[in-house]
Amino acid sequence: MPLKFYTCQLLPNFIYNHSMKNEAQKFYAVIDLKSFYASVECVERGLDPFKADLVVADDSRGNGSVCLAVSPALRAKGVKNRCRLFEIPKAIKFIIAPPRMQFYIDYAAKIYEIYLKYVSKDDIYVYSIDEAFIDLTSYVKFYNTDAKSIAKKIMDEILKTTGVTATCGMGTNLYLAKIALDILAKHSDDGIAFLDEQLYKERLWTHQPLDDFWRIGKQTRLKLEKHGIFCMKDIANAPRRLLEKFFGVDAYITIDHANGIEPTTIADIKAYKPSTKSYFSSEILPRDYERCEAVVVLKEMADRLALRMINKEVMASGITINIKFADKLEPHQRASVRFKTPTNVSSMLMSSAEELLLNKIKNVGLIRQISISANDVVKESLAHSSLFEDDTKEKAVLKSLNLIKEKFGKNSVLRAIDLLPEATGQDRNKKIGGHKSGE
User: Fold this and answer.
1) 3-state SS assignment for residue 381
2) What is the pLDDT of residue 390?
3) What is the pLDDT of residues 297-326, one digit of tens each?
4) Is 10 helix (H, G, I), strand (E, B) or coil?
5) Does residue 229 fall inside a structural domain?
6) For a Cys staple, 193 with which of 75, 184, 296, 304, CB 3.0–4.6 Å?
7) How many whole angstroms separate alpha carbon 438 and alpha carbon 431?
8) Backbone φ, ψ for residue 325 (5° rounding)
């Protein structure tokens, strides 16, 4: 089943008493933790996130370090989220808080426990560390109240328990809830906004720019504008062939969204099982790398990928690498290889990845980001092994390495390649999601 939505939104006051009398009507909420990382750091310092100027960034990487979050106070001064440190106006004095990813995960777990006090886990879909969708439909009757009141109660308890302010998007489907959150909630006095299909067309059908809407990026917006498409109403009325040119197989999902339609439910998402599975890893390099240096990092990544698959007892039918260059004008390049038989052996993945980078990627300059994925992953028990390849010994070694790393830490056993000056593996092993764990 194709998943169309993947985001939700918020709700104004006047809608509820009227619309919620219809028991057949669905009501979804998506709760977003405002400037989550920065808010947590302010709370821990006894500061008000709406008054304190604070950014979460690893300044050990230099002035070009990306800010993972900025406090609401800084955002109110025009500082954008995900900016770099040097982009913050020099006249502003601000606190730099090093990332503590494990600490943020623990905070998010406390907030998830709050959700569970009000709704079942079956009606919650955690979209990201700071955003969750909740199906409130059945709870309107259970609590004998309206959906907005339930959402408000949850938000109030989050603030009281953790000090973190939440906003909420609500809608009659998941997509409308997300759009209400992203576009309307921040302008609402109570941080809540609501959309149904009629309100969506009344309030947002002609809204510009288009990249305010989920799933439409800036480049797509610019291309659409060249064809006279500036808003969702234009998309709804555009020729189907033109939309297929821009969105491919997702064109009809985009048309549905242009009309405020989204049939996917949280139950559908939880029941969905992809026909194939892949394992993915991506790394932004600490500086611009020459190709020979990037090979070292790519081989480290392939090795970690192999260890993950060994641990899960799965094998990959092939791998894909994606390279982004320091020159942003250069298009990123991709190369893939399919194995004769599925494998999860490090030596095979490392040599294949090296071959792709050196021989399949056109040499156009310095490299800044590398991604690698293990494709069409299958269970070891279902894979057909080659009669001519005996990798039993290497697999046994890899399984032993996993056991040692689980007990003593990821850096307890290293390859010689991990000790090279351009290697990033040791530092990466200390992080969560590519950022400092804080431990």
Assistant:
1) helix
2) 55
3) 999 999 989 988 888 889 999 999 999 998
4) coil
5) yes
6) 184
7) 8
8) -100, 160
Helices (H) and strands (E) in the chain, counts: 17, 15
Residue where the block lists tokens 């390859």: 415
The token pair at 118 is 């009000």
Half-sphere exposure of 427 (CA within 13 A, CB side): 15
Helix (H, G, I), strand (E, B) or coil at 142: helix
Residues 6+ apart with CB under 8 A from 52: 42, 45, 71, 73, 95
In this structure, what token pair is assigned to residue 245? 């040119």
Burial of 2 (0-12, 13-18, 19+ CB in 10 A): exposed
Given 268, 290, 315, which residue is the final one in a domain?
A: 268
pTM of the model: 0.74
Phi, psi of 295 (to 5 degrees): -60, -40
At 19, the pLDDT band (50, 70, 90 cuts) reads: very low
Domain boundary among 213, 246, 268: 268
Polymer length of the chain: 439
Structural domain harbouring 261: 204-268
Strands (E), 71-163: 95-97, 124-128, 131-135
Q: How many domains does the chain have?
A: 2
| Pair 261, 294 in one domain | no
